Amino acid sequence: MASSYPPPFDDPGEVREGFLCPLCLKDLQSFYQLQSHYEEEHSSEDRDVKGQLKSLVQKAKKAKKKLLKRESDDRADAGSQERYESFSYGGVDPYMWEPQELGAMRSHLSDFKKHRAARIDHYVVEVNKLIIRLEKLTSFDRANTESAKIRAIEKSVVPWVSDQDVPFCPDCGNKFSIRNRRHHCRLCGSIMCKKCMELVTLPLASKLTSASKEALASHTSPNSSPNSIQGSRRGSISSVSSVSSVLDEKDDDRIRCCRHCKGTLLKREQQIDEREFTPEIVKLYEKLRLCMEKIDQKAPEYIRTAESLNAGETTYSLEHANDLRIEIQKVYELIDALSKKILTLGLNEDPQPHPKTLQLQRMIRYSATLFVQEKLLGLMSLPTKDRYEELKEKRKQELERKLQMAALETQRKQEEKQKDMVSRSSAALNGEVPHLKKATVKNSEGWLPTSSVSRQREIADPLLQQIDNITSFIKQAKAANRIDEVRMLQENLRQLQDEYDQQQTEKAIELSKRQAEEEEMQREELQVLCEKEWEREQHKAMSQHLRTRSLDFREIKQHQHEVGKDNQNLIAHILDLDTTQIKSSPSSKTPSPNAAEQLASKEKTVFSIKTGEASQCDRDQNQTSLNPFEDEAATTLIDEDSTNPFAEDAAQVMSFPTKALYNDKKEYNPFENDEEDEETNGAAVSSPNPFKGDGDPFQKGRSVQNSGNPFDESSSTNPFEVDEEISGEEVIEEELLLQQIDNIKAYIFDAKHSGRMDEVEVLTENLKDLKRTLAKQKEKSNC
Amino acid sequence: MNVVFAVKQYVSKMIEDSGPGMKVLLMDKETTSIVSMVYTQSEILQKEVYLFERIDSSNRETMKHLKAICFLRPTKENVEYLIQELRRPKYSIYFVYFSNVICKSDVKSLAEADEQEVVAEVQEFYGDYIAVNPHVFSLNLLGCCQGRNWDAAQLSRTTQGLTALLLSLKKCPMIRYQLSSESAKRLAECVKQVITKEYELFDFRRTEVPPLLLILDRSDDAITPLLNQWTYQAMVHELLGINNNRIDLSRVPGISKDLREVVLSAENDEFYANNMYLNFAEIGSNIKNLMEDFQKKKPKEQQKLESIADMKAFVENYPQFKKMSGTVSKHVTVVGELSRLVSERNLLEVSEVEQELACQNDHSSALQNMRRLLQNPKVTEFDAARLVMLYALHYERHSSNSLPGLMMDLKNKGVSEKYRKLVSAVVEYGGKRVRGSDLFSPKDAVSITKQFLKGLKGVENVYTQHQPLLHETLDQLIKGKLKDNQYPYLGPSTLRDRPQDIIVFVIGGATYEEALTVYNLNRTNPGVRIVLGGTTVHNTKSFLEEVLASGFRGRSGESSHVTPRSSSRR
């Protein structure tokens, strides 16, 4: 629940920002108010602005609705329908009431300070007066001065109250007599009886006075103990003599004073003590907080690095990441150690610390435990060196593949232009409007019109050129062995490619939308053009496909999955070989584009009936037909295209026996095939989260496939899983093992802390197992 | 209008303003419950608050390395405690927050006590009520009235609570009150007085439609708190009792040590948040799903984790599992105990008759059913007594009222005199003479037809057919149809539009059934936000205590009836 609240104090400000009146800049709280304010105040003014405002308000309303809807979806995951119903009713669940400002408050601080200042002045003056007098009383060598002289000095410091004025002790009320003698406070001059008299020892006095001096001259070291100060000031007095003087009951090193003055002085002393004393726990706690801050800084950096490395990117170095990981782990250990130390502070001392102190220590330990638990688990493991090399290799391959794509692109563009010409001429021959011709062709086959595609390619051209340039730079830099430059360039290239990929996706989406529209039109045209019998046949075929549609999807996708996996395995095996070899092994890959094509064509049949769904399905198709190696396969296919199995396929499926159409189709097919592949690839590559940095082709491929396939259940994109499935190599497992051991240790620690002994047992058991496995692994790797 | 959030914001602000470093939260008894309703311990630990202390506790140690955040009600005692604290400060620096308006002289005496200049902040943060749900608040006051009139101390506390609520939500409302209740009028006047006096504080931005405060009296609807409940939150409160989100399970047979007391808070317990307004049957199936989920996630304890994949799955699921295991064991225990009580006390049957008594007007059938139930040995004296109370309230002036006979039956059943006295006490508290609105028979044509149709269709769920009177009142209020002569405005101005932001306050305590009603009204009415408050949130037991505490002792049954005293001895 807590998370459904926005961070508490950010919102009011934002809300206020949002609802300023555009004309008078008055701050209004909500858009309702803004609207009403606007209608009241500015209704006679410019109408245009008002319209704008209204649309703005409506937008805001829509946004709010969306927001609420989303929130409700989040909350409703437990499956309670009520959350949805609440919206159909139109009211709002109190849990989802919009965030509100902080409630009213009122400060009394200035009042408080005013009153306090008056009081403090009085108090401070009093204390200072006492300290100054004390200073005067102790500034001479009392031990070696005659008592009469001392008395004279004491009397000079503060005027003594005359004996006659005070017949009774003001504190206890006893009558003064010869036996109950009067005593004077040396600090304020008042009179009290012996019982009520207090004494200030010289060490205390010097501590107080020196502390005030220190406060004035701040450069004095605060740690110098009162004793040392005393020593320097009153070096002539030995401790022995001071003890003896106490026994003598002389006032040599004590100063008589009244209770009130003594109380004031003691308070002062306490303050001085506290100022100088930092308890152990504070030092440890400060260190602990520093560590936590460090983690908060470093952990995101590490996660970023690890993600990038696991994707095979070269932006960060593996050594650096390992160092970072070790550093972070050390900080965690430090947090653990520090909090443990805080927990056990003073436990061995006698007397035991106050229960509240212990409670404080326990609580700090508990919160540190929570912290470690929460953060430590987010750390992912790093690839080992060998693994990292593999990943890098893969990444490189992918980059090169992209390069080739780019090269191919330019080539294809030219060919397409030619094709376009050919198609136009053929259309002219038929005596029909070119557009119509193309449309029918397209419908029968499900491919995009060439003209529009080629236009888009031209737009994308500068980007591709740039990519070309950079790759050549990289090659040069590599040849010259300038590694940082390579790295920089590669980063550059990556950005460019991301950009390009994104463009491609957008285009693909746009295209599919346009296609859907056109298809609607074309269907009508088709009906006019085609014979009725033929039409009937078509309908039959279509309905069949409709019925089996979901099944088809599944089969094909599964098939594709397998193919994808095959490819992955293949790659893993021949990684060490030259990359070009991969491309020249078409036999293993041909099924994959084939499948994609099949799927595509089938989907097209659906489109022609349900054009409304078209765009969505099209996107679907883009995603599902992804296979990292598809385009390579396609490129090889271009050469051996004469048989054109896909066109056959499509024709069968569609049951369009018209010859003219068929011919056209044949003409177009080879190029549009890889056009399509191009599209799908573009869409697929850019679909993963751009922040993650694209990289690991396997992972990405898998994730996209999964997301595109609603029937597939295992949609995990966890790098671990992929690692395991693909390589199953021991080195990596070792890394994993270490990670798991770390984690389990954290759990044990937590379980112990909260006293769940049964869990501790289970966990310890697991830990043992893990360690055993680890040992075995090490043996193996050593062999 | 979210009261939980309002208080939470205040507390967060206090903690944030004190800066980094170890902190102690210094509270009094009431603010402790106020804070504990909105913050969990682990949540507040993350903000470096490690200790929670009561200002009146003498067992506090001097810890100069801690910062103190004082959140206190501005009572005389608290001010005195704080003065003592400041004279000899135990912590390095003090941030002082009062939960309500504090008078200038108190500020002055505090300032004069702060000779060591340890106070860094003195503010008023108006979190002076217990936030139960986002739309429900309570003041945890029991027995707020003496007879029909306010207890002076309780009135001032209620006024403070209500004005603090208005301030924390930044609402300066128009006030309506229930005319038939003297205490409602009195409270309305007190609130108005504070608003007038502290006009600077209540100077909020004007909204198009001003908010509305409606003050009601429990005695107008004594039926609702007497019924058995079947939605989760209400049921738990009725059968186990919720006290500041805590449930005491120590009386549950065979309860394990760590489940003696459990916390049910919608803020941190997703299952509870999703199910608190569902009925018992639905919760049963949801609990089952929860268990199944849990079983899936449960690591196989016996079977050792052999492969890395097993291990990984275990590690990944462990935190979730741990969190879930807490939730599961808690809710399974609570629901298990509820169903045990239901069958032990025969509550399904009891509730059916209760609902019949509350919602239908068939005297003879009701009487017959009651007689049958009163013979049933499984029905507890408590349930028997409340059946008779319901009967007494509904058929108080019925021509063939057979209350004396039922009282006889109670006595024969061995129901203690305390409960038998309570029957007449409840009638005295909420009988026809007192009620301003008609609880039982529908007033206008529309509701008559509605009831007629309802009768034709049959009720969907016999156990939840009752709708509290509050539903009708609020429904009319939202539609702008609430009669001014029954619920007049305080002051000359009236609301022309339909109200949007509504705060309802029930003197004598609200119930969770009403909380549910308000929840549903919020969900079904666009643009309307309703917050429900009460001097407390009642279940039947606490309601009967309230009746007793208000001084309605009831007549001892014997004197008014023919039955000789000796017969009860047998």
TrEMBL record, chain A:
SMART domains: FYVE
Composition bias, Polar residues: 215-227, 702-719
Low complexity: bias regions: 228-245
MF annotations from Gene Ontology: zinc ion binding
Keywords for the protein's UniProt record, in alphabetical order: Coiled coil, Metal-binding, Zinc, Zinc-finger
Zinc-finger is among the record's keywords: yes
Coiled coil listed as a keyword: yes
CDD domains: FYVE_RBNS5
Stretches of the chain forming a coiled coil according to its record: 385-425, 479-529
Domain annotation C2H2-type: ranges: 19-47
Domain FYVE-type: 163-266
Pfam family for this entry, one: Rbsn
Disordered as annotated region, ranges: 215-245, 670-728
Stored Gene3D superfamilies: Rabenosyn, Rab binding domain, Zinc/RING finger domain, C3HC4 (zinc finger)
Protein name: Rabenosyn-5
Automatic annotation (TrEMBL), chain B:
Nucleotide-binding recorded as keyword: no
A Pfam family hit: Sec1
Keywords: Endosome, Golgi apparatus, Membrane, Phosphoprotein, Protein transport, Transport
InterPro entries: Sec-1-like_dom1 (IPR043154), Sec-1-like_dom3a (IPR043127), Sec1-like (IPR001619), Sec1-like_dom2 (IPR027482), Sec1-like_sf (IPR036045)
SUPFAM superfamilies listed in its UniProt record: Sec1/munc18-like (SM) proteins
Major localization class: membrane
Subcellular location: Endosome membrane; Golgi apparatus membrane
Coiled-coil residues: none
Any one annotated GO CC term: endosome membrane
Single GO biological process annotation from the record: protein transport
Keyword Glycoprotein: no
Membrane topology, as annotated: Peripheral membrane protein
Family designation: Belongs to the STXBP/unc-18/SEC1 family.
Role description: May play a role in vesicle-mediated protein trafficking from the Golgi stack through the trans-Golgi network.
Protein name: Vacuolar protein sorting-associated protein 45
Organism expressing this protein natively: Alligator sinensis
Gene from which this protein is expressed: VPS45
